[in-house]
Structures
1.
Amino acid sequence: MVEASPRTPAEWADALAQAITGTSHDGVKSVETYAQWGGSSRPGGVRIVCVDGIEIFGSLLDSSQ
């Protein structure tokens, strides 16, 4: 559950990471925002690592700019 309405890509990434982590899916090994991971200069995005080694990346863009 997201406590407040996210406004920036980084806030959306945090909310998305919390939502994915909250599902406790057996196939998900870890979920990190790009800020936590340090692997991207993007202000918002998530990296999902699955137990089978597949990595999923999602960048969140600010469409108001």
2.
Amino acid sequence: MRRFLAAIIVLCMAGLAAPAAAEDTFHGEWQQVSSNAGECQTCRVTIRQTGSTLQIIANNDWTAIAETGDSKTAGGAGFWKRGTRKTYAGKSFDIKLRRNDGGELLMLMRIEPARGQSRTIKGVFQRIEQLKI
């Protein structure tokens, strides 16, 4: 019985330690450094990571929820806020995130318009602030 309890304690401790290290991967505030949708020196995203779930909030009217695939990738879906004058107002999209070896965050956002072809926005972000978990 003691071995069983010791094993449970070790597994619980390992489970608590692993997410904290993994949460460091995406958690924080990120500044856009390049994009195929045009330059935007004020575009930022805030990512709050809880376990494998990412809540992504952009300061230019979009938000998304994603799940991590491994320690460096995540995928999910989001939408652009309705009622704005933005090109994609009210549109939903698929999103993929990946951390590269240089510490940058690479984002692919695939938007399905009501008519016409889909568009993929590619952005590169650098972390500007590590948020407290």
3.
Amino acid sequence: MIDLMFFLAIGAIGWGLSLALYRPVAERAGWPLGEAQERLPTLTLLIALSSIAAGVAFALVRGPMDGGVVILIFGVGLAIFWSGFLRVASQTSLFFAPLAALLLAGAWAGAIPGVS
């Protein structure tokens, strides 16, 4: 059995952290900023924070003994891998973070059939 909400929460946290931290890391490392990061930094930060909040909220509700701590640890690990390994391509987090958060919210609300 695959726990889709578990993986979506990890994705929301990891890609959200990657998106939130991309601008300061890119400026320090000399990587180029994407158009959204350059022109709308506040909006990208709000997208990142809302994605992180969705993942963390799910992890908290899930509880530490049912995978909540693992979600947080793997989310941070995904952010480190995504930003460190992909570097400039980690700007794809602008697409993946809100997508994971929206799918998590939909699954959590029961709007996606077959996912609980």
